[in-house]
Amino acid sequence: xxxxxxxxxxxxxxxxxxxxxxxxxxxxxxxxxxxxxxxxxxxxxxxxxxxxxxxxxxxxxxxxxxxxxxxxxxxxxxxxxxxxxxxxxxxxxxxxxx
Length: 98
What we know:
The chain is built from one helix and five strands.
């Protein structure tokens, strides 16, 4: 696990898939994934913001302490840039073929 004890932010941009929560009042997104680790964020929309929790899972020596749960607050800080999304989708498609 990285020195910061979290996998959040290891990838700057990527194709993000989401799943509605079982209660239907929020959603879960996977912000990082490797062969043995992942970072899951569970979020709820509150007005024009997102609030929730995130957790790094796996990818560490079992004798090391587990990473703490992160508190997440998100809001848009600029206009939509669809090119970032299109490039991330293209990279994901290329990675899937290999």
